[in-house]
Amino acid sequence: MSQPAPEHYPTGVDFNASLDTYATVVELIETACKTHRDRICAECLGGAYTFGELDSRAADFASFLQQLGLQPGDRVAVMLPNIGQFGIASFGILRGGFTSVNVNPLYTARELRHQLNDSGAKAIVILENFAATLEEVIADTSVEHVIITRMGDMLPALKRTLVNLVVKHLKKMVPGFSLPGAIAFRDALTRGSTQPMTKAEVKPDDIAFIQYTGGTTGVAKGAVLTQSNVVSNVMQGMAYNAQGLPDTGSRVIQPLPLYHIFALGMALICFAKGYRQLLIPNPRDMKGFVKELSTKPFAMMPGVNTLFNGLMNTPGFDDLDFSTVKCIFGGGTATLKDTSDRWQKITGRPILEGYGLSETSPVLTGNHAGTTEEFTGTVGHPMPGTHISLRDEDENEVAQGEPGELCAKGPQVFKGYYNRPDETEKAFTKDGYFKTGDIAVMDEKGRYKIVDRKKDMIIVSGFNVFPTEIEGVVSEMEAVMECACIGVPSEKTGETPKLFIIKKDDGLNEDQVLAYCRDNLTAYKRPSIITFVDDLPKSPVGKVLRKELR
Question: Per residue in 437-489, pLDDT tens?
Fold first, then answer.
């Protein structure tokens, strides 16, 4: 049913644009593989494959999973960086009628154990570099099948051998591991090719991804994203930015990790548009990143504030040719005006900031690629078909210009948290709007600006970090009596965790705490500042007052 567009909506954008071109993610990618069959789909480490090759290899992988006896809806974890195997594995999982569970490859054993158990994953695709972590926890999980791949597995034979030897023996990036019964990724594809994939009946309401996100309890929750949620958001982004997106066949740089919802959504737009994605396995290697860009003219790139800053501070970036660049999208964390101004001065293009969450597949609002010529300082207008409501503590709408919790309703909004009906109920208003936990105001042009966070979440380089999780881990140290964590500004990562500790043992020092965190927390969650205190500010009921710590 057609509804009036929000006031000041971008000219030429249809708020009621059709979002039903594809019923499922599977249909979208299958159509893309057929339409763009001979075009390059993905490039990585000097190798490439076409949409037609993706089609064939994903079908082989789906067939292999079916041969293992997995049933429709079974969860398959994917623990890979940005390499060519990611698209093949993910598409194969969805095409076979299974659910994909994206896993951060840098997870510690504790974090990996929780996600595998919570999702009930029966199989996992993992890079050999991280297999030692899986070995630590696999006996405690329901994982029955392990598919191991090596960095260069999708490259031509000679290059594949060279890359895999360098990674394992020269750079020594593969710790020893023992996973009896594990299957090599290339062998899985070969076995899958021996019999045709059984076409799965994939429906719009089927779960496509379980995307893990933190929570106020400090325990990661799985956001259930259906086929319809995800494909609707792809169509929303394409309809909203139709005037500004690059032409079919253009190269898109993909430096953000594909297990992150921002990169995943962008990748699906790339499939739909027939773009060639240049996958960057290690964007932290800024010199190598800039060298890659020097030989690969590109039209589009997503990024976060820290990535943009890092590139601009790397020698040689200023000398690149940006004549082919059409749009740069920023998200994950706030893009600073200084960053965008510098970026626009160098590249000639502003950073178009958007906003979303794992629970919203992910994009809720964005600055329009076709009309925005400068940084706005806002996260733009709602995507087509998306309704935003700013609410007070009692769920009443606030007056124009007043701050309120950003609440959203639309086809991209998730159905709930996996096996957590209590958390799901708390996540929605009485009239069905998802409560984001972020405080926003709407400006005179109908654009939204995020001004604060209702929750105590810390955003480090675009990743959500929850103080309660850090506090829970560090509190397990025998020498720690009590601790509290807050986020403080960081030029490098936007924010960084700062930890306040009351000692139980006077011998406890900063190095011991940091070493413990290295063993139990992913890098971006680790506190970079440790402060020892005699007490912590608390409420009458004993709750630590983080506001006073700040």
Answer: 998 999 999 999 988 677 777 889 988 787 878 988 998 899 998 899 999 99
Asked whether the beta carbons of 5 and 16 are under 8 A apart, the reply is yes
- Each residue's pLDDT tens digit, 199-218: 999 999 999 999 998 644 45
Q: Please report where in the chains the tokens 């051998």 appear, as a residue.
A: 161
* Euclidean distance between CA atoms 526 and 499, whole angstroms: 9
- Per-position DSSP letters for 78-146, written without gaps between them: EE--SSHHHHHHHHHHHHTT-EEEE--TT--HHHHHHHHHHHT-SEEEEEGGGHHHHHHHGGGS---EE
CB crowding 64-96: b at 16 or more within 10 Å, else e: bbbebebeeebbbbbbbbbbbbbbbbbbbbbbb
Its pTM stands at: 0.88
* DSSP line for 475-500: TTSTTEEEEEEEEEEETTTEEEEEEE
Rg (CA), the chain: 23
Distance CA 340, CA 399 (A): 30
Q: How far, in Å, CA of 395 to CA of 405, rounded?
A: 9
Average pLDDT over the chain reads: 93
